[in-house]
């Protein structure tokens, strides 16, 4: 009989090895950072770090506990210079004191902490890989959501504080995971709201004024009352483009920042021309005819973008819509775009609007609404 002892590697040993490998490249120990400890503790789940990897940026799913995915201005003005300074100091660490935190999801990695840093890597450093600590898949989804919220609070490598709209969005997520017991009862919900606020925002929004505003928005969004709407400014469009995995609209020429024209903002990976616009405007319709004209009359354009289709990012313009009204308005707009596809089918070639994205415009919405073309040329 063979006396063979199988070597069992414990979760703690895996974590020790992962941290050791990261520190050998100049990264810092996440167990020495309060916000990382909070994230790993995850509302009592006490997760371990399973691995340290350099992950392809295309394999990272950018889930977020913020209402707005990244802050483009902070990324450009603050985070990018800081990462470049750290990169010059320690090239092996690729510019990060702490690797990003992510959880394995199938063959991909769901990002827990590091959305702004990832945006800088993709859009400003043109990086293809990024250092990642892979966190143990342990605890309920609610536990992990709390961990992610706490991980993105102020601390090392955090580029911005939470805004009140972030907190409303976080409460919506907590509610969807069963964190509130009786949303029909305002008094009960208010008590549970205060408990959650003390947990997820212990140092900010403590005044009655701020908490009153946040509760009003959160509670109204669980009914059919008018919802809080985010401004559709340039930052809105940049964030929608970024979180859906498209290249930035900007490029640098002779040290000056410039914006691609609408018909030249493309995504080679998806073979798509990216159009953005408001549903009540005529700019997208005009741009479609411009693209058609280029395909018909510009041999270089038609050759460069052969096989490309149109991906459209649209926003609804209505003052204080309810979630139900927003859904109805998007349905009407989608019918319009289906008619545009019918028009496109009359022209020689395969150009179609194959993807339609409505970015989240209300704090009640936790994700963008996306439609794709089916075999009947309908967006579903």
List keywords for this structure.
380 residues; 3 domains; five-stranded mixed sheet; globular
Describe the structure concisely.
This protein is of the alpha/beta class. Helix content is about 40%, strand content about 15%.
What does this entry look like structurally?
This protein has 12 helices and 12 strands. By secondary structure, the protein is of the alpha/beta class. It has 3 domains: 141 residues, no CATH class; 57 residues; 139 residues, no CATH class. The protein is globular and about 65 Å long. A hairpin with a 2-residue loop joins strand 3 and strand 4. Strands 1-5-3-4-2 form a 5-stranded mixed beta sheet. A 5-stranded mixed beta sheet has the order 8-9-10-11-12, sandwiched between helices.
